[in-house]
Write a structure and sequence with these properties.
Helix content is 61%, strand content 3%. The protein contains 31 helices and 5 strands. Strands 2-1-3-5-4 form a 5-stranded mixed beta sheet. A hairpin with a 6-residue loop joins β4 and β5. α6 crosses α16.
Length: 718
């Protein structure tokens, strides 16, 4: 009777954890009520359920299971035009793993085909490949074409050598013979395909800011160290992620660029499974626990954007796994170099992981000292490579912005003490919002609609019922294990940072906290299953866990990138990933009527510097190097404060084109329009005719600025 009451309480708690955010988001005045009124969302959900059912059913067959499951997967991927995307991403990942395997062979690290060894080699490959990209860029050979050639030669060569030298390590996973194994594979396949289809059919403004137009705003016709004459602070963040996406930039594909985040998400799932193994959970339960931790909207929805959060979170988790591996003695001392190299790179992928990477670094160092890990020369190699990458990444920012790290604000202030000052013509990220406490705590757990970015990237609350179930089943002693206590401490630190630090947006973005989110869910899962490997899973627990995961995935498919579903349900099977950005731009321009303007701009070189009062959602699709005047007005107001400042902006940043909408209430545009009229009167600009466009376009004479070869129309910043 007591057990039944306990499970009833568990189910009621799970229901509350689901219903409260559902009520806030999808009912009444919730931000996503309209999403559910569109048939596109439900058709996409039905399509994903059909894929899940067919793959699961195929894997349960005794003959032809894998072939039939692969056929079902290919039908879905071909309809969305992402099968080529998945093949190229798989080849890219395999190439980095092979490069890491070759590096490990040179360093005489222990070989093997276990998951942890595969992860170690993948990290080595990523660090080595990053060092190649940044060193080549620093040497002046870092154009997109050169990086693609390097990728084909180096990664392709490493893959061929690995296949020839270590082909005995290649093993095809066996077909799952249990229902739970088939369900795990079917669920993983469905989630991956849903996320890549989402990235091919919808992007948000951040995607256009960070990655999808990096071929123009970051590389231009030069490379990473070429100043592009931009203003917004986002262009001066550490660009480790964009450098790793470089082989896919400029190909017209959204899913290929964004797909690198999906690759990192898959690696995060595998690493989380290994962390659970270190916490005492093994087998199929560890796989389900890892998947459960990574379907939270803040994690899974980030895999459908080209930003670096998932890469940074994976590198931090690798660092945690390294610390846990070092507990087992000198047989695992290679993880010392791999773990430190990973946490050194993590903040360069996303600066919001700085506190977590620093904490995990201390954890690795403490374990190494306590266990008296013997040093070896090969341990220093990945650390040295990561240090080289870190130096070059920060050097790029220093050359162009005057500081090594252009954010967060507190680090910019600390660099002022060193005499490093952010250039006057570069925007600064100054956080002003502090999340209220305790009201903000309840909203982040149960009412994410209170903050728009938490609504989209909800942190989740599935760890709460898991943690309480762990207390009920195991008591509190399982928390005294150092590894569990450390993971829980890092997880709970999310709430300290959320309320103690100021952010640029009210309530902060949930995707800032992927590392603690994953760790909280892993600790909760371990609390239920630690030490109970042979005990059957009670049906109420399975029902509750599946319900939480299903709700999280429902949020992702209906809200990620602000689009319900994964694209129109049609019978087209001729899509290719290289037409995605053109199709997305066409859809956007049909709404904003900016198609004629974009057509005129297509005749200009991609490195042409342009300003306009269109939002990033529109201007990010323009085929030139565009920056929004609204963004500049927000990031660096003095640049637009008067006529002299606007003229200096035009001339000092090599502006060739300016587009302004004909909206009389557009304050920024009306501030700039008289300056343009004066330039036309003096013969220094001309107004171009763009028939059918709701915006006017001006061509400015080439800016008279101090430039140098390869500066790509920008200027030397001082």
């Amino acid at each position: 009777m007591r057990a039944r009451l306990g499970w009833l309480a568990w189910l009621m708690l799970v229901a509350a954890c689901i219903w409260l955010p559902w009520h806030a988001l999808f009912e009444g005045n919730g931000p996503f009520v309209r999403q559910l009124s569109r048939s596109l969302a439900w058709k996409s959900i039905a399509e994903c359920l059909l894929l899940l059912g067919t793959v699961y059913g195929s894997l349960r067959l005794r003959r032809g299971a894998v072939v039939l499951a692969a056929l079902c997967t290919e039908v879905y991927a071909r309809r969305h035009g992402v099968d080529v995307t998945l093949a190229l991403l798989a080849a890219y990942l395999a190439g980095m793993h092979a490069l890491g395997r070759c590096t490990a062979g040179i360093l005489r690290m222990s070989p093997g085909s276990t998951l942890d060894i595969r992860l170690r080699d993948t990290v080595l490959g990523l660090v080595t490949w990053s060092a190649v990209i940044w060193t080549a860029s620093f040497a002046g050979a870092g154009s997109l074409g050169a990086i693609r050639a390097l990728a084909v030669a180096l990664l392709g060569g490493a893959l061929a050598f690995w296949f020839w030298r270590w082909r005995s390590e290649i093993a095809v996973p066996p077909r799952p013979v249990t229902r739970s194994g088939a369900l795990l594979v079917a669920s993983s396949v469905t989630i991956v395909l849903m996320l890549v289809a989402k990235s091919a059919s919808a992007v948000d403004s951040d995607a256009l800011w960070y990655g999808l137009n990096a071929d123009r705003t970051l590389f231009g016709n030069g490379g990473l160290f070429h100043d592009q004459g931009l203003v917004a602070h986002v262009h001066f963040y550490p660009k480790l992620t964009e450098a790793l996406q470089a082989p896919f930039l400029g190909l017209g594909s959204a899913s290929l660029v964004t797909g690198f985040s999906l690759v990192c998400w898959a690696l995060l799932v595998v690493t989380s499974r290994e962390v659970l193994g270190e916490l005492g959970v093994d087998g199929i339960r560890a796989w389900f626990g890892a998947l459960f931790a990574c379907v939270v909207p803040a994690v899974a929805a980030s895999a459908a954007t080209p930003k670096g959060e998932v890469l940074a979170a994976w590198l931090c988790t690798i660092g945690l796994l390294a610390g846990l591996r070092l507990r087992h003695g000198d047989n695992h001392r290679d993880w010392l170099g791999v773990g430190i190299g990973a946490v050194l790179l993590a903040p360069l992928a996303r600066l919001t992981t700085l506190p977590y990477s620093a904490t995990i670094f201390l954890f690795i160092a403490t374990v190494a000292v306590v266990r008296r890990t013997r040093p070896a020369w090969r341990i220093c190699v990945p650390i040295a490579l990561a240090a080289i990458v870190g130096f070059l990444v920060c050097l790029r920012t220093f050359q162009q912005a005057g500081v090594a790290l252009a954010s967060p604000d507190v680090l910019v202030n600390l660099q002022d003490l060193l005499g490093w000052h952010l250039h006057d013509d570069i925007g600064r990220y100054e956080p002003v919002f502090r999340t209220p406490f305790p009201g903000g705590l309840l909203d982040s757990l149960f009412g994410p609609a209170a903050y728009i970015h938490q609504a989209l990237f909800w942190m989740g609350n599935g760890w709460i019922p898991l943690l309480l179930a762990g207390f009920a089943l195991r008591g509190w002693r399982w928390l005294t294990a150092p590894s569990v206590a450390f993971a829980l401490l890092v997880g709970l630190s999310m709430y300290v940072l959320l309320y103690a630090y100021r952010y640029g947006g009210d309530g902060a973005d949930g995707n800032y906290f992927i590392v603690p989110i994953v760790l909280l869910h892993l600790v909760g899962w371990a609390g239920v299953f630690v030490g109970g490997h042979r005990e059957p899973v009670p049906p109420p627990f399975s029902v509750g866990a599946v319900a939480v995961a299903a709700f999280c995935l429902f949020m992702v498919i209906t809200t990620a990138n602000w689009l319900p579903g994964t694209g129109r349900l049609d019978a087209r099977f001729d899509r290719t990933p290289f037409d995605e950005l053109r199709a997305l731009a066409g859809n956007r321009f049909r709404t904003s009527n900016l198609g004629p303007l974009a057509a005129v701009l297509s005749h200009w070189p991609p490195d042409s510097r342009m300003l306009g009062d269109m939002s990033v959602d529109d201007g990010g699709y323009f085929p030139v190097r565009y920056e929004s005047l609204g963004t500049i007005a927000w990031a660096r107001p003095p640049l637009l404060q008067d006529k002299v400042a606007i003229l200096n902006l035009f001339r000092g940043h090599g502006i060739r084109l300016v587009a302004l909408g004909r909206d009389p209430v557009a304050a920024v545009g009306e501030r700039v329009r008289p300056v343009l009229a004066d330039l036309v009167a003096r013969g220094e600009a001309q107004k171009l005719n763009v028939p059918g466009s709701p915006a006017d376009l001006w061509l400015l004479e080439p800016a008279q600025s101090k430039s140098q070869p390869g500066n790509m129309g920008g200027r030397i910043r001082r």
